[in-house]
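Reviewer comment 2.1 asked that we show a complete input and output for one of the modelled complexes. We chose the DQA case, as it is the one discussed in the main text.
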Amino acid sequence: MKKILVINGPNLNLLGLREPAIYGSRDYKALEAFVLESGLDLGFQVECFQSNYEGAIVDKIQQAYGVFDGIVINPAAYTHTSVAILDALKAVAIPTVEVHLSDVDSREEFRRHSFVSLYACKVIKGKGFEGYREALEYFSEK
Ligand code: DQA
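Response of the prediction step:
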């Protein structure tokens, strides 16, 4: 059975409360439930991890080496700033799909650049929770 790690970055624990016009009204618990159920449907073993700390995300990616077959990551604000997360993904070389709930291309200019996209096999933007299902589906095709 394939093992997939789903990582969510800073402030995604505040889903529901946080800018609902952009991110929707469902909370982080609902996202985790959606992701776990999508994983079950696809026959994957899925683990969810959320952190507001860049180093904790780097540690988690490093620990994924030899354990997980794929990573789905929404690096949130670290998308646009973190060379450390990009380098961790390159180091472990685990196939990775990048997800954003919102359409980052149609928002502020600074959201258009992603360091993680320099490594990700696929990037999904603006599809809300559904984007995570699509990201998991990528691994059933592989
Ligand atoms: C986000 C988009 C980022 O620009 C933002 O900083 C987030 C969430 C998204 O899911 O749309 O925190 O990654």
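The chain has five helices and five strands. We note this here for comparison with the apo prediction described in Section 3.2.
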